[in-house]
Specification:
homodimer, 220 residues, alpha+beta, Pnp Oxidase, Chain A, 9-stranded antiparallel sheet, 5 helices, 37% strand
């Protein structure tokens, strides 16, 4: 099913013309965002934690220490809300009121479950590692049994989701168009700088020539 | 009191050497982050919503439509958790396990309350607008009574908070240092591009010369 039904949980109530409910739009945001923010409830108290992620079909994969409150909470099957936010520009209008941000944001809702079994866990960690740092699963030393034992992996099966997108120039009121105030959009994107070698880097080991290019598709 | 006491709610349990509890460290992250993610609970379900913010002493100011679920929820005095996350670099280690992100993240906990009274509301909106787009409160047309009536403003008084910071090169295991794998940090920052004028811009209105420079201190 390519589109999520609109329910009270995922419906975008404000500015509904910015809403998207199709998997293609939602998952392209999930896949591009550098990180996500996971919301969960513990004893009535809301928590929000930033973390790395990967998508596996209709599920979000998350990892952390086996002692992490978030991972233990997800492994216990509790509900989570996960937000993915990419900022594309600052919208400068002639009126303060119409100032805004060009953004693509997605939110998914589901329940956590542990990822178990060495092969499944390795596969999940590969997806998360490759999303953070493409190519490194092949270049770097892979997890050993001790590292695997200290890492928890959770899967949040996506029950419903939605996205909200704003793009384009400011939308001022007609009566403001003649004001002598500059209006437009200041584009925003993530910039990846020159790689800084580890001071302890072994002599003669060069950075992969395409290192920065591998990251250029990330936003957030 | 410059430092927040450590309680079960704000204590950083994983990698406690990365934790900060002093207002200076926490508020510098809050003030630099381009946006925040607000977590709240409605009928047992966690929600996370990205939004703009400003700080006013020991409180976070948020705004939105009077019809917004988030703003109505905060105005009703419900608890919220607000995360502010700035990514500074991708940490590439010799082992997949030690790959990481250099980041500064803060989370604050408190309860919402409506900001009421025209002067107070205007002052809050000025802080939010000036944080998003410095200088625009003076340059652009200020909110009129109709716009003010359609905007809800909430204040979340910070009860407790913490921050978590990672900086510096990868921390590989000693036995991996001799591996012929490049290791280091790929710096990440927000880049603000050339301003794109609104196609409907009045002829002869130039962009302020310092427009991009005003945003250079933002991260997120």
């Amino acid at each position: 099913m390519p589109t999520f039904p609109r329910t009270p949980r995922n419906r975008v109530s404000r500015l509904p013309d910015r809403a998207r409910y199709d998997r293609e739009a939602i998952y392209s945001i999930v896949d591009e965002a550098l990180l996500c923010h996971v919301g969960f409830v513990d004893d009535g108290q809301p928590y929000v934690i930033p973390t790395l992620h990967a998508r596996d079909g209709d599920a979000i994969l998350l990892h952390g220490s086996v002692g992490s409150r978030l991972l233990r909470h997800l492994a216990a099957g509790n509900p989570a809300s996960i937000a993915f936010t990419i900022v594309d520009g600052i919208v400068l209008a002639r009126s303060v009121f119409h100032h805004s941000v060009n953004y693509r944001s997605a939110v998914v809702f589901g329940r956590g479950a542990p990822v178990e079994g060495e092969a499944e866990r390795l596969r999940a960690l590969e997806r998360i590692a490759e999303r953070l740092a493409p190519g490194r699963w092949s270049e770097a030393r892979r997890p050993n049994p001790r590292e695997l034992a200290s890492t928890a992996v959770a899967r949040v099966a996506i029950e419903t989701a939605s996205a909200k997108v704003r793009a384009g120039p400011p939308k001022d009121d007609d009566e403001d168009l003649a004001l002598p105030v500059w209006a437009g959009v200041l584009p925003v994107e993530l910039d990846f700088g020159e790689p800084l070698p580890d001071p302890a880097l072994r002599a003669g080991v060069a950075a992969p020539g395409d290192l920065r290019d591998r990251f250029r598709r990330r936003g957030g």
